[in-house]
Specification:
alpha/beta, Spore Coat Polysaccharide Biosynthesis Protein SpsA, Chain A, eight-stranded mixed β-sheet, 10 helices
């Protein structure tokens, strides 16, 4: 079984090198390919990813949905595994996904663990242990069988934000979304730049308006107003 790890990036030079290295160290190179699809970064993301052994493609727009679809088109694996650049899958990720596929779990995600000792964020972590109404966000990473991805027509590129929730909503209806009881280590940078309550409030607003079918572009514009991004030139994405 070959897994294609697909990573959408935009100005992720601080994270991409260690992510690619860890993905390689915790897998057999014959069974895993690592694809980075960059959305016009103006830092050294592409160079660092290439230097560490990833295959790099460029998307002419900064859109996770479009970037991940490009990666899927180029991927050779039987399984696609979508990972954000500031996330670190568990060392056992390959075997975890392989075991889930053997159990006929065509798509799934992991639990979350933030790279901070914040007690408040422990609350968020706790709820990712369960299949709640909104589990399956992009930070939890997502694996899916290639054929299932194609049957669902991939990510909806109209969703310039919340593309992960839109896609997993369709996955849940079609084949179910398995929850692997292992942790993905995720950056807490969004919470550190803003604060716990502000980010959770913004996320609640986004999820509610998404459920009410607000236009994705309007959602993205509102989200940018609610939260500070890491760089004033980098648009905050959910």
């Amino acid at each position: 079984m070959q897994i294609s790890v697909i990573i959408p990036t935009f100005n992720e030079e601080k994270n991409i090198g260690s992510l690619v290295q860890n993905l390689q160290a915790n897998s057999n190179s014959q069974h895993v390919e690592i694809i980075v699809v960059d959305g016009q970064s103006y830092d050294n993301t592409k160079e660092i990813a290439t230097r560490n052994g990833a295959t790099v493609y460029t998307c002419n727009i900064k859109s996770r949905a479009a970037q991940m679809n490009i990666g899927a088109l180029q991927a050779k694996g039987d399984i696609f595994y979508f990972v954000h650049a500031d996330a670190m899958p568990p060392a056992t990720y390959y075997n975890d996904i392989k075991e889930a596929i053997i159990q006929q779990k065509k798509a799934g995600c992991f639990r979350l663990k933030f790279n901070t000792s914040s007690k408040l964020l422990k609350i968020n972590e706790f709820f990712t242990r369960f299949k709640g109404g909104y589990y399956g966000g992009g930070d939890q990473t997502l694996y899916i069988e290639k054929n299932a991805f194609k049957d669902l027509d991939g990510f909806n590129e109209r969703y310039v934000i919340m593309e992960d929730f839109e896609f997993t909503k369709r996955i849940k209806k079609r084949c179910g979304l398995h929850l692997i009881q292992k942790d993905v280590l995720v950056s807490a940078r969004k919470y550190e730049l803003n604060n716990y309550f502000k980010v959770n409030f913004a996320n609640l607003i986004m999820l509610t308006l998404f459920k009410l079918n607000m236009e994705p572009l309007k959602l993205k514009l509102l989200y940018k107003k609610l939260l500070v991004s890491e760089d004033k030139n980098i648009k905050t994405t959910a």
